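Practice problem. Given the sequence and the SMILES for pyridoxal-5'-phosphate, write out the predicted structure.
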Amino acid sequence: MWNPKDYVVPWLETAKTYSLGDVDDAMAHPEKARMMINECPIPPSDKVVEAIAKAARGGNRYPGTNTAIRTRIGNRYGVGPDQVLVVGGSSEIIDAAMRVFLRPGDEVIIPRPTFSLYEIRATVVGGKPVIVDMTPRMEYDTAAMLKAITDKTKLIIVCNPNNPTGNFIPDDELRRIVSKGIPIFLDEAYLEFYPDKPSKASWIKEFPNMFVTHTFSKAFGLAGIRFGYMIASRELTQYFEKAQVPWSASVMSLAAAEAILDYEEELRNKSAFNNRSVDFFCKVLGEIPGVKPFHSHGNYILVDASDTGKTSKEIVDKMYEKGFIIKTMPLLHGRKGFFRITPGTEEENRNLAKALKEFLST
Ligand SMILES: Cc1ncc(COP(=O)(O)O)c(C=O)c1O
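Answer key:
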């Protein structure tokens, strides 16, 4: 009998798949509030939708190398279009980075907790994730990350602000990591929620080993449209261009990105709404005895309810019963009661906060 194992690369046997089970579940249960995957609860504006519809009329044609939007994005960072790569979502850069830097057995340093896709894509190419726990206060343990570097380290991941802890790595600590000369993936997926906070893309002149990604899935609120980009030194973009398949961003996602860049108010409104929601949850949940929300610079809030005696799964299951889909978190520093919520509409936020308060206070 034909056995795929005779042909498939062996590391795929143990590689994990990124689960979208909760998204499927949310689609099957539209009556439940979808508060688990860091989406924006506000749909795209008419301006964006009209631009997509217009582009769809030319959907029989392939996109080219997208110089116009690469130039436009590059101008925001003071770099030329050859230092910008546009893709159908920044996850593609996560995947490409593993293919660019890792041979089977090479190590990638990944903090914990963080976005689970880094580890998954590393294992798909046979890379070895070296997981470094954040401190119990959920701050980057820079000393431990530096200590984890070996001759096999080919990539270091820094998510800034980090998902799910919501915090930034201090500049001096990032500088210590970047100064090592090892490729650094700086994921700024959530930075646009704080437009006054400058991107570290300005560092790439000094540190050509660092590359920075952004996405339109979060503060811009276009997760389903799929658009993201990378800013890097020309030394690095030339390799990512080779690793990347052509046409990954569709004409429709390119048009949506252009339209939302033309209409700054949309980003401002969405981020302001999100930041108010985050403050609301932090305040309300922080008042419940035994519950610690971690203030977040993204569109999610990590909560530690371990001291209430409830586990992550118990909390998430109970909220599901009450009509809210939120996300479980693994054991962190031996504590079992972590979970993550993504703010929804104002009504959903109020109702979830009430349900959590009732359950966690008993
Ligand atoms: C830190 C981080 N980076 C990247 C992504 C994926 O973004 P995209 O939709 O651009 O692929 C996510 C999604 O949750 C994320 O949390």
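Check your answer against the key. Residues 38, 89-91, 115, 159, 163, 187, 189, 215, 217, 223, 228 surround pyridoxal-5'-phosphate (CB under 6 Å).
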